[in-house]
Amino acid sequence: MNASLHDKLAALLGPNGYRVEPQDVAPHLVEWRGRYQGWTPFLALPSSTREVAAVVTLCAEHKTAITTQGGNTGLVGAQIPQGEILLSTTRLKSVRSCDPVDDAIVVEAGVVLSQVQAAAQEADRLFPLSLASEGSATIGGLISTNAGGVHVARYGMMRDLVLGIEAVLPDGRVFDGLKTLRKDNTGYDLKQLFIGAEGTLGIVTAASLKLYPRPSSRFTAMASIASPERALPLLHRLKNATGAVAAFEFMNRISIDLTLKNVADLRDPLPGGAALALIECEASTAGLRDAALAALAAAIEAGEAQDVVVAETEAQTHGFWRLRESLSAGHRPEGAQVNCDISVPVSQTPAFLKQAQIACERLHPGVRIVAFGHMGDGNIHFSALIAPGASAEAFPRAAINEAIHEAAVSLGGSISAEHGIGIARLADFKRFKDPIAIEMMRAIKHAIDPNQIMNPRVLIS
Amino acid sequence: MNASLHDKLAALLGPNGYRVEPQDVAPHLVEWRGRYQGWTPFLALPSSTREVAAVVTLCAEHKTAITTQGGNTGLVGAQIPQGEILLSTTRLKSVRSCDPVDDAIVVEAGVVLSQVQAAAQEADRLFPLSLASEGSATIGGLISTNAGGVHVARYGMMRDLVLGIEAVLPDGRVFDGLKTLRKDNTGYDLKQLFIGAEGTLGIVTAASLKLYPRPSSRFTAMASIASPERALPLLHRLKNATGAVAAFEFMNRISIDLTLKNVADLRDPLPGGAALALIECEASTAGLRDAALAALAAAIEAGEAQDVVVAETEAQTHGFWRLRESLSAGHRPEGAQVNCDISVPVSQTPAFLKQAQIACERLHPGVRIVAFGHMGDGNIHFSALIAPGASAEAFPRAAINEAIHEAAVSLGGSISAEHGIGIARLADFKRFKDPIAIEMMRAIKHAIDPNQIMNPRVLIS
After folding, report:
1. Are B116 and B140 within 8 A, CB to CB?
2. How many pairs of residues across A and B have Cβ atoms under 8 Å apart?
3. pTM for the whole thing?
């Protein structure tokens, strides 16, 4: 790093606005699962959009690259610098406004998801995005990765929840697209560029987000199902009966059993089911519970579900979700594994599960397939766990990863449903993504960031 | 037009694939209200994506500009050629697939909206986009203009209903983004570029669209309200009580009275109300009607509504909507008028109505302000009608237009909520749009269409 740039940044940000000592910077340089380790000559901690713009302006003048980091909960390595200046948005912490009549909240990039949920609740509104890392993940990061989570079936991805964005462009100018309008057809919808761009086109500094009425009733149940094929008509029946399915989470039997073995104080609500589906519906009018119960009774009659347990208390609801949210942790002690996050059209989830399992078994006899996740969106977290007793060298990670992605793509699917590309998926991105799409992305990247100083290792160059 | 290009296109498309005779081309050259008149040397009528790509490839080689037209229902002049080759998508008519389990339909660009609605209904699904021109407007045009309509409050704009897009790029390559995935985080969401781009970045040839369960109950009512200010808590109450407001359409008194005068066989369901709100809620569970009725009773108690009529039959529902949909036609016989399509944050609609009215009255005493539209989205169709007996020269059109837009922008609003920019709003676009946003749009336009052959007169150059 150029010494003069260091001095200018230090003068600009003041003593609270940057860190260079290894012990201060270290927590920002390691991914939370320990998979990526990085380094940076300078951690910038700007406290306002103006300061972010000034930092970027200086870096642009020096053609010095920047990696942006929010809550450091990303899963594909995009937020870990490899020598770039690291810009953390964690000091951009203000909730600028919250208007229940507009159903809109305006927050800065460093505000944590759970704080947005709480601010909405205080105004008697709902911010529906919900995911395991909601206590740490920041709005800037959630936008830059187009986060998904457990309520996508009803409310969509982060992209669907963004009304406006304020961002600092790669030359330091501020793009002010922070309106709270529901409709604005005045040209290209530029905010879309920053959503899911993994920090490669600029730095999101604030956003206006959609709020919803708080549903007055919530229905949560667990169903055991004989096979993924049977889950499809069950899901369809529930959608038709309630119009209000918010979550439909699939868990295969081995994913549950390993988690019960490795995580304390969990309960299997339906032991013996070949697979489970965690169902959540929500509505603001009476009648949801009756409609859902009738649909589930009909589903058992039709053989779509084997058995059903309905949560009658908050504690039971919490217990169902705790099982679901413990799955990743429950698989970690089982040794080497390949984790994929694919999506296919909803109707193709059973075919994907079958094809991917066969491919993995062929590559590694004895492999244990844990498959779970957002079946209502066609999004399966699919992991291949090393056969018990096998040596790490005998576990063909790369081939398994490719075979799983191959199965998804052959069914019209995607190699990354909600986690993004980062550096973790770059090789498969280049292999499976339409070359014309990659060329278009490159043209846009070069048009907006001609000096390639924004997250240059990530996604596209 | 270059003679060799003409011959190559004619050979490519065959006798059914193009028209050059004036009487054949004429219907495509005039906007349906007669506001824009154009000309073209060649009307291309390709019948497949492959043919569209071949036409564009030839035009790109000859650096010859193209204007694309769907159902010719646009309101801002974007679809009327001024010497460019005119490419009509009307022969791209295939419904490629419709899958109720995926809740997705794949259609070509020339399919008309009402056909998509019908195909969805046949599969027991709902395609929720609905607007006055749904019997003529095509999917390609609706995507290129990011159409809105009457159900945005519940289902969003066209942008929110698009899962994937196939488009021919300005160099003739085909961008194949026609997946039916709910989640796909593999880079920039390129389909967003084509939505609302008014044909300036390529030609949409097909799209995959979201379907929904068909709601089993619909509640439609008309409320009289003392003022726009009173309408806001009424809307908020209904949202909270039902979680299912699909439409909340405002109509001021004069907009109704002029329509009753000029359109036959209409009925005013609540004569004497200062303004009316047409309310529609829909849900799939019982209990909607009771919740909505209770909310409306409480609203009358609280003075938010003066009186309410609930539609008890299909005929009554139809009658309410017929009044709403007759408003534009009902104002046309009243002579010269300035029509705006603005949006503001929902909470600012009363302030906008007040400020814009005052500004118009100052510019043209005796002006009649008709204001109606999608108040639930903050989108008001606001028209200033010439004072009775005034001469056209005494009606300051440009100043009124600018004053209305000024009022919207000063309240955080937009000069075009759902109609777009085209050529009609270009001057105000340049005046009111953030210059940084215009520069970003230009950078993208030049990156994707460096020879500027796609709708070059429109939106951005």
Report:
1. no
2. 294
3. 0.97
